[in-house]
Amino acid sequence: MRILVVGSGGREHALAWKLAQSSKVTKLYAAPGNAGIAGLAECAAIDASEVRRLAEFAERQKIDLTVVGPELPLTLGIVDEFERRGMGIFGPSQAASAIEGSKVFSKRLMKKQNIPTGFFQTFYREEDAKRYIQDVGTPIVVKADGLAGGKGSLVCRTLAEALDAVKMIMEEKIFGDAGERVVIEEYLVGEEASFLAFTDGKTVLPMPSSQDHKPAYDNDQGPNTGGMGAYSPAPVVTEEVQRKAMEQIMIPAVKGMDAEGKRYKGVLYVGLMIKDGEPKALEFNARFGDPEAQCLLVRMRSDLILILEAAIDERLHEVKIEWQEEAAVCIVMASGGYPGRFEKGKIIQGVEAASKLKGVFIFHAGTALRDGKLVTAGGRVLGVTALGKGIKEAIERAYEAVKLISWEGVHYRTDIGKKALMRME
Ligand code: AMP
Ligand code: GLY
Question: What pLDDT was estimated at residue 147?
């Protein structure tokens, strides 16, 4: 089979790495890819948002199956475009991607299906949103309705912050059209975890739990990022929590989407907030998480292609996914300054030595080759991932690899996985 991976991050490198191991794959392409992906796949310089060009490329290259990493092409209708042309593609349709693309849609779905989540209200007018905040008080979360590159949720501790958040989103339009509507949502407390599943619209096949680390600095300090590290499994997701997440959240969501005429096929990701063993839904994503995917894919034993094909053909009920017992940890190495301003083009050293360590996989995100040298080309640069007999060994192995890698201004968190260790003590 000829496969195309769409995207250029660590998640897409992990997807390409996993797909390359399938005996069914004869040729791998990526668009646009990165320097790491280029070692496994032929990269085409087409941005992930250029849906039409991607479809034309896939037609020309006779691609059998396209796997989409990021959310933007999904919400732009890449799956519909490929299906119209009779080409195989894995992911939700444009209509179904609204589960991530519109917070208003997603919260309404949760409410209709009685999915446990915080209370919320939707607003079209700034004054109404502000009046509501004054009534309910803080802490409160203000969210732009549309996609905002993962930055659209503002957790506000004071009234002034919350009113300012509404102003920034609705009046100053810092997230553009994504801020036409806002959701004002209850601030939930607890521990967060990521819970992902494959679904064909009927069957829901859960993956092991994982946990992301969104804040930029140690001890969850600093601004939110795309994710500074992850581990899997997440001990906060006990068997009981997993059962509740499936019965109360995932299955009702998939059924609800079907009932709305938006059958959901692909990876469904719910961000959970867990308190006293009760999971609540914070948000849905229409794809793999990054960097959760890096951990999940190194733990997956089964052939990913067989799962994706079964999901497309609506026969996931026939599939059983095998996973490694071993735990996985991914440490994101980022450019100094990320998620704010950062410089690119710094020479990266030590990747080859680090990748030789036992159980270690180096997934590239913002990397490029310049004059034959590996250089930084984005905010998140590498996802240093390791398997180990338990979380502790995986953490040790991953940090051992991280210590071998360097560039000017490199930044990473030194406490990835600490929460898991604390729970297990
Ligand atoms: P999101 O953009 O919805 O992924 O949210 C980004 C981050 O904001 C989440 O990972 C949480 O840490 C935080 N967050 C979002 N919604 C809430 C909420 N209702 N209560 C508490 N924290 C939240
Ligand atoms: N790691 C969070 C996300 O992919 O949305």
Answer: 95
CA distance 43 to 29: 6
Torsion of CA 352, 356, 357, 359, to 10 degrees: 120
Task: Decide: 73 and 10 in contact? Cβ < 8 Å.
Answer: no
Across 295-366, the runs of DSSP E, i.e. the strands, are 327-334, 360-364
Is 100 inside any structural domain? Answer: no
375 lies in the same domain as 277: no
Rounded CA gap, 142 and 107, in Å? 13
CA of 182 to the centre of ligand 2 (A): 21
Q: What pLDDT, on a 0 to 100 scale, did the predictor assign at position 259?
A: 97
Residue 257 makes CB contacts below 8 A (sequence gap 6+) with: 96, 99, 109, 201, 263, 264
C-alpha distances in Å from residue 221, one per residue of 162, 214, 275: 20, 9, 21
Are residues 332 and 313 both part of a single domain? no
Instruction: Say what the pLDDT of residue 161 is.
Output: 97
Question: 298 with 279: CB under 8 angstroms?
Answer: no
Domain residues for the domain of 150 are: 125-180
Residue that has been written with the tokens 């993962």 in this structure: 150
Quote the ligand 2 centre to 150 CA distance (angstroms).
8
pTM as predicted: 0.97
> pLDDT tens, 357-393?
999 999 999 999 999 999 999 999 999 999 999 999 9
Number of domains in the chain: 4
Residue 10 token pair: 């660590």
Which residues contact ligand 1 via a Cβ below 6 A? 118, 141, 150, 152-153, 155, 185-188, 192, 214, 224, 271, 282-283
Counting from 1 in the atom list of ligand 2, the atom nearest the Cα of 287 is 4
Atom of ligand 1 nearest to the CA of 187: 20
Q: Which residues contact 60 (CB under 8 A, 6 or more apart)?
A: none
Residue 241 CA to residue 126 CA, distance in Å, equals 38
CA of 193 relative to ligand 1 center, distance in Å = 11
Give the whole-angstrom CA distance, residue 392 versus residue 203. 34
Question: Residue 149 — pLDDT band, cuts 50, 70, 90?
Answer: confident
Could you tell me if residue 194 is left (phi over 0), alpha (psi between -120 and 50 degrees) or otherwise beta? beta
Let me know whether 241 and 298 are in one domain.
yes
